[in-house]
Structure formats: structure tokens, C-alpha cells
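Hello K.,

You asked for the raw outputs rather than the summary table, so here they are, unedited. I folded two proteins back to back in the same session to keep the settings identical. This is the first:
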Amino acid sequence: MASINPPACNFGWKAPEFNLPDTNGKLVSLQESVGPKGLLVMFICNHCPYVKAILPRLIADVTELKALGINTVAIMSNDPSDYPEDSPENMKKLSEELALPFPYLFDETQQVAKTYDAVCTPDFFGFNKNLELQYRGRFDESRKDTAPESSRDLFRAMKQVSQTGHGPKEQVQSIGCSIKWKID
């Protein structure tokens, strides 16, 4: 599995619309997802070791962010034909087992990932209440292993967005597994 980094934050870039099914088949849109202070859009999957390493802390952080007015959605855009662990059935299983506090959406056509220019899992897009991009950085300083003392980059950045509407000027890019694109 090759590691890949997404591009730096393009401050002010407007969040593209989406309307994707969650693990129960209910369609969830961008407009209904945004919280009073902003929205965190995460591209994740079940099989990625980078995602697995941060998932318990990610769940705790997005729960805290919700109390600050930042809602969260997770989007899985991998092609599950080559990665069965990322199938809709396994997404539902993971969502239920961990009681995910956010909708876990399936981007079957991969069009949303392409529109967002998502490149890896995890890939984070932090928007303010006007749906302007303010954060495109890492979760924290850990990689595939859990860091004992987390820097909480994502949490601190989104807390700042909730308070000021703006993300930090200095951001460290995320790192993760490449999105598994369908072969035409």
C-alpha cells in the first residue's frame, strides 16, 4: 500500500454538493449535513491502516466538535470489488460496531471524491459555516501507529474554525493510503 499526501489547503474553496447513501440507504446531502459553525468532510475507509490507527481518537474528537457546532460526515470512495473490507455491508457493520457519531456515506461512482480532489484515506476537508474550506491537513502527528501524545491538529483547527470561521494558516498535510479508483 503506497502512502500519499493530498495537496495543501485552498482557503475559501466552496464545498461541492453531494447526495450519497448512508449505511442504511438514506440519502444525505451537503446542505443537511453542515452544522451551525461548519462541517468536516472526511474521506475514509475500513481497510486503511492509517484510518484504523486513528479511528477511536477520531470518534472522540468529532463528538467534541459536534458540541462546538461542527458536524461531520465520512465518505468511502474506494472500489470495494478489490477491497471487500470496504463494501457497503462492511461499512454498515463498522458503523454499528463503533456506533459512529456521523453518517458514513458510500460514493459508489467515485464522483464525489473526484469533485473534492480527494486522494487518500484519511483525507480531511474542514469547512466553516459558509462552506468555505479552512482546513486540509492531518489528523495528528501519528502515522499508522498511535502516537501516545497526540498533537490533535484536526481538532484544534476545527475548534478554531468554530470560534473564528477561519482555519490555521500553517497546516501539515495528511498522509494515507491512496483512494482505490475503479479501472475503466
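The second followed immediately with the same parameters:
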Amino acid sequence: MVHVEPAHLVELALRNTPPTDDDAEALRHVERCDRCRDELRMMTRVVTAARSAELVDLSAAPPERVWQRITQDLSRESAPARPPPSPLGRSAKRKLLVALALAVVAGAVVAGGVARHVLKRNV
């Protein structure tokens, strides 16, 4: 069974663009697949929580360790250059919070998939 790619699940959770035929096909798969349905549900919760966050929830840029952990979880490569600190408006902070939350969720999904694959190979 071919599962929906994590990046496509993120796009479905964000609902930033009008649905496409690929989206309809992915959603049909999600209806039948517990794993993809659970991942989409989790990502949708993160998006909802991040979009409802208030300015006080992210009063400062995340510490360097957050960027390193996200990079480590997603690619297992060296950390990207951290964006220079800049005064963020309310909209920019919200977008940053959503992006960070989705990056963490995507990292967890990828890590979980790798762990399942390794466990299946070792059984």
C-alpha cells in the first residue's frame, strides 16, 4: 500500500490552496488507512493550535537548539543557517509558530516511519 507523503498530509492539514485531484485521491486513501488518517488528524490539530496561538505564546525567536533539533530530526544533516533576528509582526510570528509546529510533526512522522521500517527489518 502506498501511503500519502508526509509533505502532502501537511498541505492537506494547512488547507491553503483549493483542493486538486491529487488531494481528492489522497483523502480517499486517508479514509481507508488508519496510519495516514491518524497522521493527518495529528497535523490538523497542530495547525489548529498554531493558528489559534496568541502573540504572547511566541514572544521571542526560538532558541538555537530548536533549529538544530528540527534539522536533525528532518534531515540528519548539519543545521541550516538560522534566520537573522528581526522584529516580527503578529502575522509573521503566527506563520513561524505554524511552520515550527509542522516541522516538528513532520520530523516525528518521518522518524516514526524510519523506526517502523527498522523494526520490521529486524523482526
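The two ends are 20 Å apart (CA to CA).

Happy to rerun anything if the numbers look odd on your end.

Regards,
P.
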